[in-house]
Amino acid sequence: MAAIDGIAAAGHAVANQEEQGGIIMHSCARLLAVWLAGSITSPALAADLLIHGGPILTMAGERPHQVAAVVVEGGRIAFAGPLGQAQQLAGPTTPRLDLKGRTLIPGLVDAHSHFMMAVDLARRVNVSGAPVGDVASIAGLVAKLAAAEPGLALGPGEWLVGWGYDVSLLSDQRELTRRDLDARFPDRPVLIMHVSSHGAVLNSAGLAALGITADTPAPTGGLIHREADGRTPNGQIWESALALAGPALKPPGRAERLKSLAAVQALYAKNGYTLANDGFTHIADLDLLQTAAGQGRLMLDIVALPSFVDLKRWLGNPGYAFGTWHNRLKLQGIKIAQDGSPQGRTAYLSEPFLVPGPNGEAGWRAQPIQPFPAFLATARAATSAGLQLFIHANGDAAIDDVIKAVETLGLPADHRSIIIHSQVQRPDQLPRYAALDITPSYFTNHAYFWGDVHRRQLGEARAAHISPIRSALALGLHASNHSDFIVTPLDPMFILWTSMTRTTRSGFVLGPDQRLDAWNGLKALTINPAWAYREEGRRGSIEVGKLADFTLLSANPLVTPPAQIREIKVVGTMKEGRFLWEAGR
Ligand SMILES: [Zn+2]
C-alpha cells in the first residue's frame, strides 16, 4: 500500500461518544431476559442489528470457532450463535446486515504503532523504498525531495523533512550522508528520518542549524556518526542524539494537526483497526489527543503510551489519569525504550553483529539507551506509581535488562509488563518471560522487510529465531503482533501473512518452525493485544457483552492458502455496531 497516500480519503465517520466507563450490560441482559422468558417478538425490544451471511470468526478460545449470526444492541454484542436463535431474539423489524460471503472478525486491536507520527506526515516527504514508496537509490531520494519541495511552500530556513529512508533498499549499497544532500540543498536545512524512526540524516545546513559540530559529543545512549577524520559529523545521528533534532521535527499548528488527526483515524479505520495505539507519546502529542477527545473528534478508541522521557510530568499529575477511558482516549502505561533497531545496528546485543558498527567498530554490540541502574530507576518510578510497563527492547541484551528489572522490582501479580518488538531474543529467554509474566509483542513484518539484512548482520541462527511468536504462544504467553506503523504499513493482512509465511523480500523462509496458522495469527491481532491493554473483557473477540466492533474481510483467512493471505482485503470496519468505513460506499 502507499502508506499515507490514501490518508485524505476519510470515511463517513460515526462518532458515538457514549462514555465508555465499563461494560454496559443492561441492554444485553435485558435482551437475554426477554429471550429466556420466551417473549421474543416484541417490536419495542427489537435489537439494533442482526449480522449474518458469512463466516463469523469469534476469536474466542484456543481452536477455530465460528458462529452463523451476531445480534447487536446498544453498541454491544447481545448474541453470537445460530441464525435461528438470532432471528428469534432480534425479531422481524431489526435491520439485517447480510455479509454476502465476506468474513467478520472482531475489530482489530493495534498492538503497537505510532499514530501521532502519522499525524505529522502530511508535510513530510515519503522517501521509502518499495512497497511503501518508490525510492531505489540515493539520487532517486534526492530527486524525490527536490520534486516535493515546491508543493510544501516552505519559508526561508524552514526544514525540509523526509521519512522512510532505508539503506537496505538503495542500489548504492551505502549510507546516505550530508554530502549527498548538500549538492541539491546547500542552504535549506534537511532532515531525513530513518525508516526505524531511531535515526536521521542531516545535510550541512541542518547540522549547522542544530549546532552539531565536530566538537559536539554524542549524548549518553546516542550516536553522532563521523567522517574519516573521526571528528566531522557525516550527517547521521541515532537514538538519543535524535533529541538534538527537536527544532527540525517541530509539529505544525494545532488546527492543522487536528485536521490530519481525522485523516489518520480514517486511515486506521480503512485498515480495519477499531483501536489505534500511539506507542511513544510525547507531552505535546498527548495534549493534542486530549483536546481532540474533549471536542468529540475521536471515532476510534486510542490507547496512548506516554514516553518515559517526560516521566516526571506524568507521575502524580491528575491531568494525566492512567487506565480509564475518557471520550475514546486511554493512557495505558509508560513506554520506555531501552535500545534501537536490528537493521539499524542499534539493537543492544550480547554477541556482536557479524558486520562492523556504524563507525566501523569491530565486535559491535550497540548499547542500551540507559545504563541498567538508570533504566531500573525509571521502571521503578513508573511501577511504584502503579503504571504498566511497555518496554521497547529489540536486542537480547536489552531484553536481559527488562528481565532483570522485572525480577528485581518484584512486580505484583498480573502486572502485564510488555516487551515491544522482542525480536532478537535468545531461546533461553522465553521461559524467563513465562516465569516472570512478561509478554512479547512481536513484529513479524521484519521477516519480510529486513529478514535478508538480518541473515547478513546477525547470522542464520539469530535471524531464524527473530520474533519467535509460535514458541511464545506455545508457552501460553499472550503474544501480539504489530506493524510499528509508520515503520511498516498498517495493512493487517500483510502482518498476518508475514506471521504465517515468514518470507523475506528475496523469498527465503526465515525460521519456518515459527510460522503460525491463521487462527493464532489472527489472535495476535485481536484478543492478545486486547489483553495487553487490559481490554480482554471488552473487545478482541465476538462474545456477548463485548463492544460490537468488527472488521470485514474479503475472504476467510482460515481457508485461504498462506501464500495468498496478503491478497485478502479489509472491506469494512464497524465501531459499536455502525460502519466507520465500508468498501464501495
Ligand atoms: Zn515503535
Topology:
Elements: H1 26-37, E1 49-57, E2 66-73, E3 76-81, H2 83-90, E4 96-98, E5 103-106, E6 108-109, H3 115-119, E7 125-126, H4 138-152, E8 160-165, H5 178-182, E9 190-194, E10 199-202, H6 204-210, E11 222-226, E12 233-239, H7 254-270, E13 273-281, H8 283-294, E14 301-306, H9 311-314, E15 329-331, E16 333-337, H10 372-384, E17 388-395, H11 396-409, E18 417-424, H12 429-436, E19 438-442, H13 445-449, H14 451-458, H15 460-464, H16 469-474, E20 480-481, H17 492-501, H18 518-523, H19 527-532, E21 550-553, E22 570-575, E23 578-582
Parallel strand pairs: 1-4, 6-13, 7-8, 8-9, 13-14, 14-15, 16-17, 17-18, 18-19, 19-20
Antiparallel strand pairs: 1-2, 2-3, 5-21, 9-10, 10-12, 11-12, 21-22, 22-23
Zinc ion binds at residues 112, 114, 279, 484.
Pfam families: Amidohydro_3
Organism: Sandarakinorhabdus cyanobacteriorum
Domain Amidohydrolase: 98-579
Please describe what this structure looks like:
This protein has 19 helices and 23 strands. The protein is an alpha/beta fold and 585 residues long. It folds into two domains: 123-249, Diaminopimelate Epimerase, Chain A, domain 1; 259-578, TIM Barrel. The longest helix is centred in the middle third of the chain and has 17 residues, at 254-270. The model is unreliable at 1-45 (pLDDT under 50). Residues 112, 114, 279, 484 line the site of zinc ion. This is Amidohydrolase 3 domain-containing protein. Residues 98-579 form the Amidohydrolase domain.
